[in-house]
Amino acid sequence: MSLYDLLPINDALNIVLRVVKPLTTERVATAEADGRVLAEEIRSPENVPPFRASTVDGFAVIANDHGAPRKVVDNITAGVADRPALQSGTAARIMTGAPLPDGADSVEMIEYSQLDNGSVTFDRRVSPGENVRPIGIDISSGDVVLQPGSIIGAPEVGLLMTLGVTQIECYRRPTVAVLSTGDELVEPGEPLRPGAIRDSNRYALMASIREAGGVPVSMGRAIDDRDLQTRMIREGVDLGDVLITSGGVSVGDRDFIKPALEELGTVHFGRINFRPGMPLTFAEIGPKLVFGLPGNPVSSLVTFESFVRPALRAMQGDPHPLRPLVEVELEHDFRRPGGRLEYHRAVVRYSGGRLRARSTGLQISSRLLSMVGSNAMLVLVEGEGTLPAGSVVPAVLTGPIQND
Amino acid sequence: MSLYDLLPINDALNIVLRVVKPLTTERVATAEADGRVLAEEIRSPENVPPFRASTVDGFAVIANDHGAPRKVVDNITAGVADRPALQSGTAARIMTGAPLPDGADSVEMIEYSQLDNGSVTFDRRVSPGENVRPIGIDISSGDVVLQPGSIIGAPEVGLLMTLGVTQIECYRRPTVAVLSTGDELVEPGEPLRPGAIRDSNRYALMASIREAGGVPVSMGRAIDDRDLQTRMIREGVDLGDVLITSGGVSVGDRDFIKPALEELGTVHFGRINFRPGMPLTFAEIGPKLVFGLPGNPVSSLVTFESFVRPALRAMQGDPHPLRPLVEVELEHDFRRPGGRLEYHRAVVRYSGGRLRARSTGLQISSRLLSMVGSNAMLVLVEGEGTLPAGSVVPAVLTGPIQND
Looking at the partner chain, which of A1, A80, A184 has a beta carbon nearest the beta carbon of B110? Predict the structure, then answer.
């Protein structure tokens, strides 16, 4: 009945990743760049540290100048500079992070010092260079410290601020318009008339978009009217870098999304050999992307996770747009899926030295409880009968691994 | 020199987790609750689906009513209701998600149908109940669908909206005041005078706070003046549920944080047997928590990750406030840390069926590059010599596992 081939999941994903391109870049304050992807190479304009710094609280000394008590001639706190050079036979009290005076080559820790009448002796002998951070030990001037494609987290913010780089070039976050379709939908806050269901997908997808680093824009709901849906698709690709629709991609008389996308642009695929979410549709309209997600709640979120999220990550310049793929051991028997490859929602935990998975239960595509609390999708190949407990299968990790 | 015992890391963490309590709760719009932790039990007020729904596009029929062509008497689209009951010998065109008419017990897919002159015949025989979602199959009225402590993600948003639960009780996000201390600090955008360094920690910590679900409030910098720092600590615990200071916790003459905390409240510990970040200090002032983090950039972020983040997660009601702990195989020799347990920053990838780790290089506590791009902290026990490649060590996963 459908004109569209049932595309293997990897073929479909490859099409998506071939079509998507990183968005343009923009200048972002480093202080607010966490979560962004860097679009430029950052070279250090200077040495870190820019001076020889003490790593401890103690006394700056000349290491080979040992023997007699040393006269304490200075007190160097962090942040000061241009102190007089240290002469043989003397020491300078120095704080962690403070610059060594010229002449000094090491710092003895205060824990090993005896101060008496303005002179200091030590319980041990310090080595030249001990407790000193040499100039440039952390970073040398001119070093590449961050590559394009780096994801900015707390350490990267700290590193950039250390170097005085308060603005950076990052990829734009994609704006993603979300449109629900279907005569049966009502707003979640409205009374539920007979035969109707609440439009939960749009809100769940907006949360997924945020998690993926995108900026969701709600377009509300469209009833099953071809002209209206066509007009709203046009509007959606004007509004966003990406448009996501939910529902209306099956083969029913009132499934208008595929025909509308064919009319407005290029449909790359319209069915995938995959459960949940076979009718997933992917199209380009001009420079914009459209994902026609199935209306079943689980199908829409799993196809988002598997196809839209990688696209949104790639648009942000993430060089690793896919979730981690590992292998896990089944904790119980799993029924093999009939007919199509299945992404079986599961909980993966690290237990007894290995990654182990248990099902979230009944996997029908309407049952959102099959996703609640899950952190993985097990890749189950179609077949008859059961996969016995102890079998090892691939798993896409969608969240942190659990511990016992 | 220090009055404080060197506390083993687990003892210190246990103290923190014993002291922290979940914050109060607040009403949050479900549409904006992603990332929050649920503070109430959610029971379904209704059955899902509330009516018998078709899972396919096709024809609603009476399964045992087979044989002759069936007259097509109705066309039931999603969202309609109160259609006439189906009589023997008839069928109703029906869309995915539409309610079955009374009398019908199954739906035959359109793919298997032949429509001729207003009557339909099928290439196969449908079974009673086939392609029908029974009332309550996804969720039964009264079922507990979410427990307190559930972390709200896209599936949870979808589930709640499906049930019409548009507001939920969630734990408050902790407000976290951040204060940097030290005469040597200048703003990252300011010129760097000799002997000074840029205040990068405050910005890195604010990014870490956001990642942990907290709300950072910058208090700027305080020079090394005991009265000033004492006053700002008071102000910080007024402002936030938690105050984080950076620097000033060593044993130097100008390390005023510990004495100020002793004056204002109760110091639970002031040193940990841990690298990087030995001088970590944890105190309570009234109902508020204070973490005195070391000033070295790596020490401040690693102690945040290891102690402050679990506290912030627990304050948000997260029942699993700790990061995943796994075991990894070393890809190369690692030098055992002398003197203290080390959290060695590393990159963990899944390769050849196992989790493997390589170091991010020189681990001195000033070198932020040792954290850049890392997704794990390896737990290396103190000792002499090297841990050879192939050794298996515990690892705290701080980000997604990489693939080859």
Answer: A1
